[in-house]
């Protein structure tokens, strides 16, 4: 088992909580297709992208990445059925700071190294030509930094942890919070 660090943007997690998959209540007629794609349900991230964000600037990107995963990297965990974490506390704190998530808490999450998957989140971009988008999706699922033929930001390695997963202790400034009330 390896310890990773999850930034809880929703501020709903607690130490010891098991995070699992959920299902979406869909309009009549869409359930069968949804159940074909995600028979066990989706993660919070999957719920957000498959059910609630119709106005997202690029709502199809997650589905495109999912289909590339299914076609060429089926052994990798789905982004839509996983939770996300960072390889180190410093990377989790950097993400939190850069996204302006002042109130978000950071928790340890242990995962089987063979089940978790680490990929460059900066490859998640489908705004270019279709062939480049396909190349980025394939590089993401291969765990690569990305093609050198295009100008990309330096890699930012995210960890996909298949669900269910148990939330560990909350950490702050390199110290562990042992009680949820914030006392040390």
Automatic annotation (TrEMBL):
Name by which UniProt lists this protein: DUF2441 domain-containing protein
């Amino acid at each position: 088992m390896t310890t990773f660090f999850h930034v809880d943007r929703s501020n709903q997690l607690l130490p010891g909580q098991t995070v699992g998959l959920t299902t979406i209540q869909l309009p009549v007629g869409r359930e069968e297709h949804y159940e074909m794609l995600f028979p066990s349900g989706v993660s919070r991230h999957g719920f957000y992208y498959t059910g609630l964000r119709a106005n997202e600037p690029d709502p199809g990107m997650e589905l495109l990445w999912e289909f590339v995963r299914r076609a060429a990297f089926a052994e990798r965990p789905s982004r839509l059925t996983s939770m996300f974490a960072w390889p180190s506390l410093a990377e989790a704190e950097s993400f939190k700071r850069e996204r302006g998530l002042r109130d978000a808490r950071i928790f340890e999450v242990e995962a089987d190294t063979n089940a978790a998957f680490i990929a460059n989140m900066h490859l998640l971009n489908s705004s270019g030509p279709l062939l480049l988008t396909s190349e980025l999706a394939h590089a993401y699922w291969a765990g690569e930094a990305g093609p050198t033929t295009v100008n990309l930001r330096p890699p930012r390695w995210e960890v996909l942890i298949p669900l269910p997963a148990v939330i560990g202790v909350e950490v702050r400034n390199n110290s562990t919070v042992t009680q949820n009330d914030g006392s040390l």
